[in-house]
User: Fold this.
Amino acid sequence: MASIFDYKSKEYKKTKKPIVFSRPFYEFQALIYQVPNRHGGHQETLMLRHRKTGSLIAFDCFSTEIREKEWIQFWHYIQNYMDISKPLPDTPNFEICRDYDPTTFAYDEKINRNPRLWRNMSEESYENHRKMSLYQEDINPNAYPCIIMERVRQSKGSLSKNEAPIDR
Assistant:
């Protein structure tokens, strides 16, 4: 599920409880927008748009220097994170919660992964991992299938009243 919390509504100002819009992740579509900056240039940002309502989730918490290819790589990262049939990505920020995800827990037991892999890693090993990740920019993310498209039914011909067109 993907959720959007609305803190700008009149209801939030009265109750101090945000309005929550939650929908299945596969109902969202990834878009890369070019947003103007104050210097007359532009920057790219990734947004998820709900296919039927148009509600947006913006990923604007990153550096302004992220290029389109890096946003596409991040989009594939998100898809892998949201796919509950696969273990969580093996990154330091997910190590603390790997035991709570049943798929990841089973996978870690199967491969006999050290539960403190990242925390006990030497500085030298960590530096080697970091250097290896720098070369991931050479990976073409479009060479991999888009997980979200497996669940989206492409509409052809006329649309019923309850069906929204799918933009590409």
In short: Confidence is low (pLDDT under 50) at residues 152-168. The radius of gyration is 19 Å. Helices lie at 10-15, 68-82, 102-111, 123-134.
